[in-house]
Design brief:
By secondary structure, this protein is mainly alpha-helical. The protein has 2 helices and no strands. The chain has one domain.
Length: 73
């Protein structure tokens, strides 16, 4: 089980920046389609809200790879 936790930690570390990249790319595409102020505000809020979530996901993955969640500690 500890090996699975560490392997999934790598997945979380990789998934964090991928999610953020996808979110920014999607937001830029939506703003390009409709450059109104409300679209810009909406996507800026989405991105700003998700940055700490993504940072937490990467941090969780880091601690998982480090072995902080291993059984028997």
């Amino acid at each position: 089980m500890n090996l699975l936790k560490r392997a999934l930690g790598i997945v979380w570390i990789v998934l964090g920046p991928v999610i953020l990249y996808w979110l920014i790319r999607t937001g830029a595409a939506e703003i390009a389609k409709n450059p109104a102020a409300n679209t810009k505000i909406q996507w800026s809020v989405f991105i700003v809200i998700f940055i700490p979530i993504v940072a937490g996901l990467v941090l969780f993955g880091y601690y998982s790879v480090k072995g902080e969640y291993d059984d028997g500690k």
